[in-house]
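Ticket 4471: requesting a sanity check on a complex prediction with glutamine. Repro inputs:
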Amino acid sequence: MKYVFVTGGVVSSLGKGLTAASLGTLLENRGLKITLQKFDPYLNVDPGTMSPYQHGEVYVLDDGAETDLDLGHYERFTHTKLSRKNNLTSGQVYQTVLDKERRGDYLGKTVQVIPHVTDEIQKRIVEVGELSKADIVITEIGGTTGDIEGLPFLEAIREFALNVGPTNVCFIHVTYVPFIKAAGELKTKPTQQSVAKLREIGIAPNILVCRCEQPLNKELRQKISLFCNVAYEAVIEEKDVDHSIYEVPLMLQRERMDDLVCNHLRIEAPPANMIHWQEIIRKLVVPQHRVRIGVVGKYIELQDAYKSVYEAIIHGGVANDCGVAIEKIESEEIEKFGAEKALRGLTGILVPGGFGERGIEGKILAAKYAREKKMPFFGLCLGMQIATIEFARNVLGLAGANSTEFDANSPHPVISLLSEQKNVSHKGASMRLGSQPCELLAGSKAAHFYGASLIHERHRHRYEFNNEYREQFEQAGLMFSGTSPDHKLVELIELKDHPFFLASQYHPEFLSKPNAPHPLFRAFIAACQVAMHQRAT
Ligand code: GLN
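Returned structure tokens:
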């Protein structure tokens, strides 16, 4: 088994995760079996308890693990199956070490970062490799070189390389080469210093990926090569992409990154065939049509809070050869200025997941607007719950209808706590999580879109539709088109007399890929295209 480690230097947000995922794409398309994992140096056991302001999106896996959003990139860019083992945090490492210490497993030894913490980290690398039976395990180390909390992880991979031998390990360092406007030049010093920091720890990178806004010329590459002690051809340029993150694998292929990795690891594999990937880019860059989708959320100013949702919308566009302009709409703006002002001119509206009361009424107004104006509407998780509340209030006339998450004393709690949640006190990993089966109602639009009667989708919620109200809703034209196989939990709703009004309790965005767009996102964008043509004629 071979191992690639991806570290980052100079600043965060360089797109290490995208680089690791893109390398995964290239290696897979050379016929190699790969897996990807992420190490996060923070002390939280998982990101599930962190605010989107701290962390961006929490990405959910089939097994219910709440993970870093980079795992979303890994799944979208490759075919690798990920589990909770593929995201390790310092919190998990220390929890394991402390549990062992309390059990007496260390037999009287002093428990230390080296070797006990670093051993635990190395064990995970081996475990993920064995579980996946991959040819290559790609491990991304979160954080930036020089961070105190990242040191045990860097020390662990240094020791690991020593144990498995230099031709079995490839170190890739993603760094930043800033363009200084006043000097009119790209500057290599931060890269030199970041590599020096790594070498101090005992890691000499084999490949340097230089993130930059301007192309690197020959002199700069030579300078970086000389000062960082990395072969000239292994200094790779990763310029900001023009259109889409899905261009990154093609860009890295042009820089021969996958060749470098294979050569270093002594792997023989044919060149990557990226024809299908190029076709995706063509559809993204020169689409036949264009629609405008409004995403109504409460963390709209954060780029990463709805990452998988934005990606899945784009995939739905690719499936329809349709460009999508995503308008990010703060739900509180709708509360302040009204739905008409905020939503006029859109082709479709999507309300994503969320927690807490802030912004709820704005989302409800958005659902009302879409229902009344017959504008395509797609609700995800909280988006389904607010669509239900809106229908209860404005169609069924149930004044004060709400979710007990927002109003514990609502006279009509149409959304209420899942019964399994009633005795839950710990906040960590305690929601209804991960892949669950859902039966689709024959004859529903959803069953048609999926072309299936039983599906599996990923979940992350504590509240659900309150079954006491089912009949009332059904009589008024709302269809429960998906339920748990025992029919107790509502998973999907749709409106009969509406071009597209669909909302799921689950998160379909976690199962969409550019080369396998999710059926509901595909159908949503298709409905938006129809709506746009109708408006034009
Ligand atoms: N807050 C809602 C619940 O817990 C919705 C969760 C979500 O959108 N992920 O059920």
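Notes from triage: The chain has a mean pLDDT of 94. Leaving this open until the requester confirms.
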